[in-house]
Amino acid sequence: MSAHSIRTLQEVSGDRLPRLQANHLSVRYRDVWALEDVTVSVRPGKLTGIIGPNGAGKSTMMKAMLGLVPGDGSVSWGDDSLLAQRNRLAYLPQRAQIDWSYPATAWDVVMMGRVQKTGWFKRFSANSRAKAKEALGRVEMEEFANRPIGRLSGGQQQRVFLARALAQEADVLFLDEPFTGVDKRTEAILFNIMHELADEGKIVLVVHHDLGAAIQNFDDLILLNKNLIASGARKRVLRDEPMQRAYGGFVNFLPEVA
Ligand SMILES: Nc1ncnc2c1ncn2[C@@H]1O[C@H](COP(=O)(O)OP(=O)(O)OP(=O)(O)O)[C@@H](O)[C@H]1O
Ligand SMILES: [Mg+2]
User: Fold this and answer.
1) pLDDT number for residue 213
2) Which of 1, 42, 89, 220 has a Cα-to-Cα distance from 196 of 20 to 30 A?
3) What is the pLDDT of residue 250?
4) 29 CA distance to ligand 2 centroid (A)?
5) Which domain range does residue 148 map to?
């Protein structure tokens, strides 16, 4: 057993993995503030959604936490910065940002998740292959392993990218709108896996912009509109006042959803 897995087991059996803490995150793209002074804490073992209208800064917040856009603020996980622990982190970017014409098969994409464990230019171990196979099986995509990703449906593509995150065996997962273009069956498969990951005590943070019934799958929510409007347990966030503040007159969700 590796030192890493020993530590993980101890943390899970003790007080679980630590919280993720973002402090005073601000991002400005030239003259536009996309995110202003957002301080938020994400609980391990819970499925957490980031919601807010288009352009609210949801993707920007994820990218800021990953150090992919310049900005102010800090993000810690346990006693260290998140980025110092990037080998334990998996990120699924929003669909539009992935080059779907890239000549890789579903299998290649999932194996990319093993690169951090194996190292570039090294041969993948039997263990890595087994993990990739298991990950593809978990998203029910084994039979498509040899299909180029450009020739999969939108929902199948999303499943392959979630499989890559699974193969990585990350403890912190950032998923930006993983449900875009997926049908109800795929949505259920993806939510199931996310719940399993959360139940293992991991940090699972998901950008989600649909206010329909599926929002009940989230335990915690972060409601953004450039600023942080509300965060915490779902029922606390999905109240009239914060939702009106974030969405203006355009919010039209059913209160019983909360
Ligand atoms: N690279 C960029 N350069 C300039 N402005 C940007 C850039 N990326 C995002 N923005 C702007 O920053 C704001 C926040 O964008 P962001 O993509 O984070 O929103 P979002 O909440 O993820 O929206 P969506 O629901 O449409 O995905 C928007 O006003 C957007 O136009
Ligand atoms: Mg976005």
Assistant:
1) 85
2) 1
3) 64
4) 15
5) 15-247
In this structure, what token pair is assigned to residue 197?
A: 């990951």
pLDDT tens digit sequence for 15-26: 568 999 999 999
3-state secondary structure of 93: coil
Which CATH number fits the domain that encloses residue 138?
3.40.50.300
Residue 183 lies in a domain: yes
Q: How many domains, in total, are found in the chain? A: 1
Give the residue ranges of DSSP H helices in the chain. Answer: 3-13, 58-65, 106-112, 115-118, 126-138, 154-167, 184-199, 234-237, 240-247
Q: Does residue 173 lie within any of the structural domains?
A: yes
Q: Would you say residue 6 lies in a domain?
A: no
* Structural tokens at position 173: 């997962």
Cβ(167)–Cβ(132) under 8 Å?
A: yes
Tell whether ligand 1 has an atom less than 6 A from the beta carbon of residue 56: yes
Is 258 among the domain residues? no
Distances (CA, A) of 80 to 2, 3, 77, 116, 188: 20, 18, 6, 20, 34
Average pLDDT for residues 57-66, to the nearest whole number?
Answer: 96
Average pLDDT over residues 231-243: 94
Degrees, nearest 5: CA angle 247-40-201: 110
53: tokens are 């209208």
* Of 26, 33, 50, 60, best ligand 1 pocket probe by most atoms within 8 Å of the beta carbon: 60
Residue 180's alpha-carbon distances to 27, 34, 165, 176, in angstroms, are 25, 22, 17, 9
